[in-house]
Protein backbone atom coordinates (compact mmCIF):
# COMPACT_ATOMS: atom_id res chain seq x y z
CA UNK A 1 0.00 0.00 0.00
CA UNK A 2 1.22 3.47 -0.88
CA UNK A 3 2.34 5.78 1.88
CA UNK A 4 -0.58 7.98 2.86
CA UNK A 5 -0.60 11.75 3.13
CA UNK A 6 -1.73 11.21 6.69
CA UNK A 7 -1.31 14.69 8.12
CA UNK A 8 -3.65 16.07 5.49
CA UNK A 9 -6.52 13.89 6.75
CA UNK A 10 -6.47 15.56 10.15
CA UNK A 11 -6.24 18.97 8.48
CA UNK A 12 -9.36 18.20 6.44
CA UNK A 13 -11.48 17.81 9.59
CA UNK A 14 -9.87 20.64 11.57
CA UNK A 15 -12.51 23.02 12.89
CA UNK A 16 -15.24 20.92 11.28
CA UNK A 17 -17.83 18.25 12.03
CA UNK A 18 -17.45 14.50 11.61
CA UNK A 19 -20.70 12.52 11.46
CA UNK A 20 -20.85 8.98 12.79
CA UNK A 21 -22.88 6.70 10.51
CA UNK A 22 -23.37 3.46 12.41
CA UNK A 23 -26.17 0.99 13.01
CA UNK A 24 -25.70 -2.22 14.98
CA UNK A 25 -27.33 -5.52 13.94
CA UNK A 26 -30.20 -5.10 16.41
CA UNK A 27 -31.08 -1.63 15.07
CA UNK A 28 -33.63 -1.01 12.27
CA UNK A 29 -31.23 0.88 10.00
CA UNK A 30 -28.57 -1.85 10.07
CA UNK A 31 -27.51 -1.97 6.41
CA UNK A 32 -24.39 -0.97 4.54
CA UNK A 33 -26.56 0.57 1.82
CA UNK A 34 -28.43 2.70 4.35
CA UNK A 35 -25.19 3.81 6.02
CA UNK A 36 -23.89 4.81 2.59
CA UNK A 37 -26.94 6.98 2.01
CA UNK A 38 -26.63 8.36 5.54
CA UNK A 39 -23.07 9.39 4.70
CA UNK A 40 -24.31 11.16 1.55
CA UNK A 41 -26.86 13.04 3.64
CA UNK A 42 -24.13 14.03 6.10
CA UNK A 43 -21.90 15.16 3.24
CA UNK A 44 -24.66 17.25 1.67
CA UNK A 45 -25.30 18.80 5.08
CA UNK A 46 -21.67 19.92 5.30
CA UNK A 47 -19.91 17.17 7.24
CA UNK A 48 -16.14 17.10 6.74
CA UNK A 49 -15.64 13.44 7.69
CA UNK A 50 -17.42 10.20 8.53
CA UNK A 51 -16.93 7.75 11.39
CA UNK A 52 -18.07 4.23 10.50
CA UNK A 53 -18.10 0.71 11.87
CA UNK A 54 -17.13 -2.46 9.92
CA UNK A 55 -15.29 -3.02 6.67
CA UNK A 56 -18.51 -3.59 4.70
CA UNK A 57 -20.04 -0.29 5.81
CA UNK A 58 -16.78 1.59 5.18
CA UNK A 59 -16.38 0.08 1.71
CA UNK A 60 -19.92 1.17 0.80
CA UNK A 61 -19.48 4.66 2.24
CA UNK A 62 -16.28 5.11 0.22
CA UNK A 63 -18.26 4.52 -2.98
CA UNK A 64 -20.68 7.27 -2.00
CA UNK A 65 -18.61 10.11 -0.55
CA UNK A 66 -15.03 11.33 -0.82
CA UNK A 67 -14.46 12.30 2.78
CA UNK A 68 -11.89 11.24 5.40
CA UNK A 69 -13.13 8.19 7.28
CA UNK A 70 -12.50 7.35 10.91
CA UNK A 71 -12.91 3.58 10.91
CA UNK A 72 -13.63 1.17 13.72
CA UNK A 73 -14.67 -2.44 14.06
CA UNK A 74 -16.88 -3.21 17.03
CA UNK A 75 -16.13 -6.77 18.11
CA UNK A 76 -17.05 -8.35 21.43
CA UNK A 77 -14.65 -10.90 22.89
CA UNK A 78 -15.49 -13.00 25.91
CA UNK A 79 -13.70 -11.90 29.06
CA UNK A 80 -12.95 -8.33 27.95
CA UNK A 81 -15.02 -5.15 27.98
CA UNK A 82 -12.88 -3.63 25.21
CA UNK A 83 -14.82 -3.85 21.94
CA UNK A 84 -13.81 -0.89 19.74
CA UNK A 85 -11.12 -2.23 17.41
CA UNK A 86 -9.92 -4.51 20.23
CA UNK A 87 -7.23 -6.66 18.56
CA UNK A 88 -4.66 -6.64 15.78
CA UNK A 89 -7.11 -8.62 13.62
CA UNK A 90 -9.49 -5.65 13.42
CA UNK A 91 -6.65 -3.17 12.88
CA UNK A 92 -5.31 -5.29 10.02
CA UNK A 93 -8.74 -5.37 8.38
CA UNK A 94 -9.21 -1.60 8.63
CA UNK A 95 -5.73 -0.91 7.29
CA UNK A 96 -6.30 -3.20 4.32
CA UNK A 97 -9.55 -1.36 3.59
CA UNK A 98 -7.58 1.89 3.46
CA UNK A 99 -9.24 3.74 6.33
CA UNK A 100 -7.84 7.23 6.83
CA UNK A 101 -7.90 7.15 10.63
CA UNK A 102 -8.22 3.98 12.70
CA UNK A 103 -9.85 4.52 16.08
CA UNK A 104 -8.93 2.17 18.93
CA UNK A 105 -10.16 1.77 22.50
CA UNK A 106 -7.31 3.38 24.45
CA UNK A 107 -8.75 2.95 27.93
CA UNK A 108 -6.69 1.33 30.65
CA UNK A 109 -8.79 -1.85 30.55
CA UNK A 110 -7.26 -5.23 29.73
CA UNK A 111 -7.74 -6.12 26.08
CA UNK A 112 -8.95 -9.48 24.70
CA UNK A 113 -5.35 -10.60 24.08
CA UNK A 114 -4.45 -9.91 27.72
CA UNK A 115 -2.43 -6.75 27.03
CA UNK A 116 -3.02 -3.11 27.92
CA UNK A 117 -2.93 -0.29 25.36
CA UNK A 118 0.43 0.78 26.83
CA UNK A 119 1.87 -2.65 26.05
CA UNK A 120 0.35 -3.21 22.59
CA UNK A 121 0.32 0.22 20.91
CA UNK A 122 4.10 0.39 20.30
CA UNK A 123 3.73 -2.86 18.32
CA UNK A 124 0.77 -1.45 16.38
CA UNK A 125 2.65 1.77 15.60
CA UNK A 126 5.73 -0.14 14.46
CA UNK A 127 3.66 -2.31 12.14
CA UNK A 128 1.74 0.60 10.59
CA UNK A 129 4.05 3.60 10.56
CA UNK A 130 2.07 5.43 7.87
CA UNK A 131 -1.34 5.10 9.54
CA UNK A 132 -3.19 7.70 11.58
CA UNK A 133 -4.56 6.37 14.88
CA UNK A 134 -7.23 7.91 17.11
CA UNK A 135 -7.37 7.03 20.80
CA UNK A 136 -10.87 6.51 22.15
CA UNK A 137 -10.45 7.46 25.81
CA UNK A 138 -12.63 7.79 28.89
CA UNK A 139 -10.41 9.74 31.31
CA UNK A 140 -7.82 12.49 31.36
CA UNK A 141 -5.09 10.05 32.41
CA UNK A 142 -5.85 7.71 29.51
CA UNK A 143 -5.72 10.61 27.05
CA UNK A 144 -2.37 11.80 28.40
CA UNK A 145 -0.94 8.28 28.08
CA UNK A 146 -2.33 7.95 24.55
CA UNK A 147 -0.58 11.15 23.51
CA UNK A 148 2.67 9.92 25.07
CA UNK A 149 2.32 6.59 23.23
CA UNK A 150 2.14 8.40 19.90
CA UNK A 151 -1.53 8.43 18.96
CA UNK A 152 -2.17 11.08 16.31
CA UNK A 153 -5.36 12.38 17.93
CA UNK A 154 -7.29 11.79 21.13
CA UNK A 155 -11.05 11.43 21.48
CA UNK A 156 -13.35 11.60 24.49
CA UNK A 157 -15.47 8.83 22.97
CA UNK A 158 -15.67 6.53 25.98
CA UNK A 159 -16.26 9.00 28.81
CA UNK A 160 -19.37 7.76 30.58
CA UNK A 161 -19.17 4.32 28.99
CA UNK A 162 -16.62 2.60 31.23
CA UNK A 163 -16.96 1.35 34.79
CA UNK A 164 -14.62 4.10 35.95
CA UNK A 165 -16.60 6.90 34.27
CA UNK A 166 -20.16 5.64 34.63
CA UNK A 167 -22.41 8.54 35.57
CA UNK A 168 -20.25 11.23 33.95
CA UNK A 169 -22.39 14.07 32.63
CA UNK A 170 -22.33 14.07 28.85
CA UNK A 171 -21.12 15.75 26.80
CA UNK A 172 -18.03 15.86 28.99
CA UNK A 173 -17.10 19.54 28.73
CA UNK A 174 -14.90 19.30 31.79
CA UNK A 175 -12.70 16.58 30.27
CA UNK A 176 -12.51 18.35 26.93
CA UNK A 177 -11.48 21.66 28.53
CA UNK A 178 -8.75 19.98 30.55
CA UNK A 179 -7.40 18.16 27.49
CA UNK A 180 -7.35 21.18 25.20
CA UNK A 181 -5.45 23.14 27.84
CA UNK A 182 -2.78 20.53 28.50
CA UNK A 183 -2.25 18.35 25.39
CA UNK A 184 -0.74 19.40 22.09
CA UNK A 185 -2.22 16.57 20.01
CA UNK A 186 -5.56 17.23 18.27
CA UNK A 187 -8.53 16.68 20.60
CA UNK A 188 -11.69 15.25 19.08
CA UNK A 189 -14.83 15.70 21.16
CA UNK A 190 -17.17 12.73 20.92
CA UNK A 191 -19.97 11.37 23.04
CA UNK A 192 -23.33 12.78 24.07
CA UNK A 193 -23.37 15.88 21.84
CA UNK A 194 -27.09 16.32 21.16
CA UNK A 195 -27.50 19.95 20.14
CA UNK A 196 -25.82 22.55 17.90
CA UNK A 197 -25.35 24.66 21.04
CA UNK A 198 -23.38 21.91 22.77
CA UNK A 199 -21.29 21.46 19.63
CA UNK A 200 -20.56 25.17 19.47
CA UNK A 201 -19.47 25.16 23.09
CA UNK A 202 -17.10 22.27 22.36
CA UNK A 203 -15.41 24.22 19.58
CA UNK A 204 -15.16 27.30 21.81
CA UNK A 205 -13.05 25.14 24.17
CA UNK A 206 -10.44 24.69 21.44
CA UNK A 207 -11.09 21.20 20.07
CA UNK A 208 -9.67 20.11 16.71
CA UNK A 209 -12.89 18.43 15.56
CA UNK A 210 -16.02 16.77 16.91
CA UNK A 211 -17.93 13.59 16.14
CA UNK A 212 -21.72 13.60 16.37
CA UNK A 213 -23.61 10.37 15.81
CA UNK A 214 -26.90 9.56 17.53
CA UNK A 215 -28.30 13.09 17.31
CA UNK A 216 -28.00 12.98 13.50
CA UNK A 217 -28.04 9.37 12.31
CA UNK A 218 -30.07 7.31 14.80
CA UNK A 219 -33.76 8.16 14.33
CA UNK A 220 -34.91 5.55 16.84
CA UNK A 221 -32.86 7.23 19.61
CA UNK A 222 -33.96 10.69 18.48
CA UNK A 223 -37.60 9.59 18.57
CA UNK A 224 -37.17 8.19 22.09
CA UNK A 225 -35.95 11.58 23.33
CA UNK A 226 -39.03 13.31 21.90
CA UNK A 227 -41.34 10.66 23.34
CA UNK A 228 -39.73 11.08 26.76
CA UNK A 229 -40.32 14.84 26.51
CA UNK A 230 -44.00 14.19 25.80
CA UNK A 231 -44.30 11.73 28.68
CA UNK A 232 -42.67 14.20 31.07
CA UNK A 233 -45.48 16.75 30.63
CA UNK A 234 -48.43 14.52 29.78
CA UNK A 235 -51.11 14.51 32.52
Structure characterization notes:
By secondary structure, this protein is α/β, with parallel strands linked by helices. It has one domain: TIM Barrel (Alpha-Beta Barrel), CATH 3.20.20.70. 43% of the residues lie in helices and 15% in strands. The chain has 10 helices and 8 strands. The protein has an 8-stranded parallel beta barrel with strand order 1-2-3-4-5-6-7-8, surrounded by 7 helices. The chain is globular.
Question: How would you summarize what this structure contains?
Answer:
The protein is α/β, with parallel strands linked by helices and 235 residues long. The protein has a single domain, classed as TIM Barrel (Alpha-Beta Barrel).
**Which structural category do the helix and sheet elements fall into?**
alpha/beta
Number of helices: 10
How does the overall form come out from the CA principal axes? globular
CATH class: Alpha Beta
Give a short account of the largest sheet: 8 strands, parallel, barrel
Strand content: 15-25%
Low-confidence stretches: 1-5
The CATH topology assignment is TIM Barrel
Question: Main traits of this protein?
Answer:
235 residues, 8-stranded parallel β-barrel, 15% strand
Q: Mind sketching the topology for me?
A:
Layout: H1 6-13, E1 16-21, H2 32-45, E2 49-53, H3 55-64, E3 69-72, H4 88-97, E4 101-105, H5 117-127, E5 132-136, H6 140-149, E6 153-155, H7 173-182, E7 187-190, H8 196-204, E8 209-212, H9 214-217, H10 219-233
Parallel strand pairs: 1-2, 1-8, 2-3, 3-4, 4-5, 5-6, 6-7, 7-8
Helix pairs in contact: 2-3
Amino acid sequence: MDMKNTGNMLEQIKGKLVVSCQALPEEPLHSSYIMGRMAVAAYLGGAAGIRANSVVDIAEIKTQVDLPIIGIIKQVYEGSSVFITPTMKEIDALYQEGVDIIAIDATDRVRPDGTTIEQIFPTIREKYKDQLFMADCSTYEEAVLAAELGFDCVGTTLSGYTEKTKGNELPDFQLVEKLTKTLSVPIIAEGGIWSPEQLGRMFSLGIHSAVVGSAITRPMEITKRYVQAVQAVRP
